[in-house]
Amino acid sequence: MPELPEVEVVRRGLAAWVAGRQVMDVDVHDARSLRRHEPSPGSDPGNPADAPTQPDPTPFARGEDFRARLRGRTLQEPQRRGKYLWLPLDSADSALLIHLGMSGQVLVEDRAAAAEKHLKISLDLSARPGAPEQLRFVDQRIFGGMQVTRLIAADHASGAVPAPVAHIAADPFETAADPSADERLFRALRRRRSGLKRALLDQSLISGIGNIYADEALWRAGLHFARRTETVTRDETSRLLTAARAVMSAALEAGGTSFDSLYVNVNGASGYFSRSLQAYGQAGGECSRCAVDGRSAGVIQRAKFMGRSSYWCPVCQPRPRNGRW
DNA sequence: TCTAGAACCTGTGTGC
DNA sequence: TGCACACAGGTTCTAG
């Protein structure tokens, strides 16, 4: 499942293979992967001047507009915020925005390579010696997608960001060198009235964290997923941020987490971090930290939370009583 | 205004 | 063997 480390692996692949190349042609095989693409003249839903030319464009019109706005453009150095990835276009005011959703893949392949079963969009790129000619977007569950969108100034960014990304908060890597980041997150959590994991998954609060790394960061920090945000301390917030950075750095080094063929890098290779997971997917297994500490080892539990699975150790991540400790 | 849950989507695994 | 159902989860929308 692509979260921040997996998206960063893809971004690095695109930087190596795609940046600086011109889009010669575009094939939209399934316009459902363009459902967030708004036809010209703009894609900023908050700007009346950028209202779509049609209130509900047909899939065909969406695909034609997407194609027209990419053909002949040169793709610039790929950028990332949280789980969003974009390639600025040489027009300087717009970008090709990509979200992988749950099962999206961005592949760089030869044009002659057989089409993947769930191939949604393909871009023919200008020739470069030794480099494949095609950029492909493959998506089994169609939660991800591509769109061409305007770049706008963002107050927390060093440069412009696509309009749909403007509400996304900085990710744990972006704030690693910012000494005030822990305090900002602490105050934001205290203002909330929800469970800690729900807050971690809110991309407008902190970005890049999904279900897997939320469980891993909470395990490392020794905090229960249902802990109320209004009760967390500064120390616990710092522990959580440090844990999130550590687990995602380790995942990045391992090439990301691949449980099946749903996540691969641009060359089609899987990551290996699934072997290092301590909580997520480990239900029934002994907690490695409890065993090392010499305490009676807890057994990793699984519970439904927010319509998805959460994993935790009942010994070192005790469940809060009545929402508090 | 904020929180929580539903909907979107399809391949895989399980039970009958 | 074939069918029905549950499950996986990131984002957006809607109801309360």
TrEMBL record:
It catalyses: Hydrolysis of DNA containing ring-opened 7-methylguanine residues, releasing 2,6-diamino-4-hydroxy-5-(N-methyl)formamidopyrimidine; 2'-deoxyribonucleotide-(2'-deoxyribose 5'-phosphate)-2'-deoxyribonucleotide-DNA = a 3'-end 2'-deoxyribonucleotide-(2,3-dehydro-2,3-deoxyribose 5'-phosphate)-DNA + a 5'-end 5'-phospho-2'-deoxyribonucleoside-DNA + H(+). The lineage of its organism: Bacteria, Bacillati, Actinomycetota, Actinomycetes, Micrococcales. Gene3D superfamilies: 1.10.8.50, MutM-like, N-terminal. Residues 2-144 form the Formamidopyrimidine-DNA glycosylase catalytic domain. This is Formamidopyrimidine-DNA glycosylase. Keywords: DNA damage, DNA repair, DNA-binding, Glycosidase, Hydrolase, Lyase, Metal-binding, Multifunctional enzyme, Zinc, Zinc-finger. Monomer. Residues 32-63 are annotated as: Disordered. Residues 278-318 form the FPG-type domain. Its EC number is 3.2.2.23, 4.2.99.18. GO terms for biological process: base-excision repair; response to oxidative stress. Its cofactor is Zn(2+). PROSITE patterns: FPG_CAT (PS51068), ZF_FPG_2 (PS51066).
